[in-house]
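Issue 218. Parser rejects a valid record. Input:
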Amino acid sequence: MEAFVKSEIKNGIGTITFFHPQSNSMPGAQLRNLAAEVEKLGKDDGCKVIVLKSEGEKAFCAGASFDELIQIKDIDTGLKFFSGFAAVINAMRKAPKFVLARVQGKAVGGGVGIASAADYTYAVEGASVKLSELAVGIGPFVVGPAVERKVGTSAFCQLTINATEWQSAQWAKEKGLYAELFANVSDMDKAIDVLANKLATSNPEAMAMLKKIMWEGTENWDQLLIERAGMSGKLVLSEFTVNAINQFKAKA
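Output the parser choked on:
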């Protein structure tokens, strides 16, 4: 299967599904398409609530595409790539509908950021998390504000500093990243359907107002996340990062 991002609206529930054959990693085009779909459903009056999910079983999202990272040769290209993650997070933040995330597998780097930017995140017990950016010489600069907002500064620092270690889904639930945990995907999907259908019949104006209140204090993220993208875009050019990414790719 080739990479895709698609969306549909049914009974007031907008579902966005993304896929990439490399563990749902995110090239720049995939990020831009995902942000565009979130913005589109956010503006569609027929959509009352958004469900965000990925295909496959093992990984929800493996973060940035190493294949694309290794091709970045200048700061402008680096800024453009990492701005893709900024666009997704800001689209989720500004959509006047609640975003429910369905995490059916492990989340790494930018994948943790996407799960954190959702308003209500479901996960299965195997959905461990890791912010691996420091291990390849950069840092979770762009997704950091979303992750820190959800789990708190202490847990964010733990994830960031111990960049090679997985934290369990139970840990993520205890820190507030996951709202609910399930033993299997079937049970998780049933729970998502129940809440999504309840929200689809709730007052859209009330939900939009609540969404705005819940994200108070993030109004500067349009600028902040682009600045953070510039930090990553600069570091990805370093000899350290190039060597580290090549080592990771060789092991894959």
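Fixed in the parser; the record now loads. The chain has one domain: 4-200.
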